[in-house]
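Predict structure. Chain length: 575.
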Amino acid sequence: MTANIRTVDVIYHNGTLYTADQQDTFCQAMAIGEGVIVATGSDEAILKLATPDTEIVDLQGKLMMPGLIDSHMHPFWGGKQLRGCNLNYAALSVEETLTLIQTHLDNDPFKGENDWLTVRAWQRQAMTPVGADMSREALDTLNTRRPVALFSNDCHTLAANSRALDMLGIDENTPVPADGKIARDEAGRLTGILEDAPAMRAFDSIPSGTPEQNVQIATHVQQVLNQQGVTTVMDTRVFAEQLEAFAVLRDRGELTVRMLGAKEITPDSVDGPEDAARAVAEIAQFNRSWNDAEWTPAPGFGLTHVKFFVDGVLQPPTMTASLLEPYRENRGTHDAPDWQSGERYGDLYFTAPVLEALIVECGRAGIHPHTHTVADGAIEMVLNAVEKMRNDSPGKDIRPGLAHNELVAAHQYQRFADLGATAVLSFQWAGLPGVLIDEEREMLGEERFANMEPAARFLDTGARLAYGSDWPIDRLDEWYNLQVGMTRRAWDSEGKPAGPRLDTDRDLTLIEALRAATIDAAYMIAREQYIGSLEVGKLADAIVLDNNLFEQPVDTVYQTKVIRTLVGGKVVHQA
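Prediction complete.
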């Protein structure tokens, strides 16, 4: 196809171009003018469009495809994690964790007693031995007066020493909010553990860097994203502070990634269903202040979404994800287990009337709801609310995204399709270690476990998938994550299986995985008219890979290297 409205500035030819259009077309060449795709097709046809001023780039047979769209992540949190004390997602004992933290403290002697130490990439669920946990008491043994806070890799747990709790204003009289926990021991004394929303809000309240330090973080973030081939991200818990840092780069002409965001409405900020219109109106005002109504080749912002945390985390010891039927409990011992149905259903952080009112108001305001829904109880609540929104605003183009969906009830796949809701998945979560597969099978029972970490089942019932890494919940490794989606197992650094295949769904095909990270993610974020595929008239966001994914074994996808990244036709990364 060809458009006749632009000068041809550059032609990429002699390659394999996967367009991700509706027909999944492949071609050989593409012409770009003024940051927009002018034509795609054969080498012969596209090279005829060249002028004496046109740059000609020989792809030498390499694969070119749309830039990756990561539709659920926390880039600024991730950027902060790249600096400072990082436990690197390791399985550690309490003693090993304290030793690493003390080493960091000892190597940072110029910090004052009021300077926070935030420790990231803490794998709470993987602490050794089984059942071990961090505590205020353990952190208080560190040789420091500084406030110390560990933030778990899933961002749902914060462990604080006594100084940190004091500076956060949390004591034994602090009430427990509706959307999480402030743990206490049997004597009512704080253990130092905060779970779910209290953990996130506490972490958010910890002083971050200066505005210029935040710009440095934003600069680093976009560099590592571009290196992995990411051209657009959705920050699914965005704040003005973060957007301001990226706005500095935009104003300098240095922004190299398109930024979308969803600001959160918390349960405690809404005084009943009658207050929903006010809460959504505030989101609409925030979005208007940041959203670029029209997108251009130069990257900017897109804010037309809102975020709701509906439940918590499935894995023990937290188990705050909401289930339709209760968790099973081991009433025996570790060596002689006796799993029986218990009384614990997990947590729902919104009441059904409040969430329904909020999502109905989203429909009226033209705002796309994006929800944290880990398990079937939360999914059911959100789908019920979406159904009410569809009935209230028939024909309105609202694109709900339900993120995570680790445990889905069998009847819910068709509801996703019927209601036009997108399942937003972090494919790497299907790469579970064998011990966790066994534990979750027992915790849920065979019937429910059969719907653990689904992906293809959504597609097979006509629903749409969008990919989101959820970084920094896991380390940033986009191509590894896509490989897990196509194999449903974990892999080690040498490319060998690191665990059993999770046999609860079929593998995604390469096309299905790529579409989830390109055009279908673009649809979920409501920007498919601009990005997501290499089609005439769209913005020239594209990547060139050093290998052809379509000509190699699926178990080598993790080795993919991006040798060039384009945003609006401009080269923002060159290997």
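Summary: Residues 273 and 285 are 20 Å apart (CA to CA).
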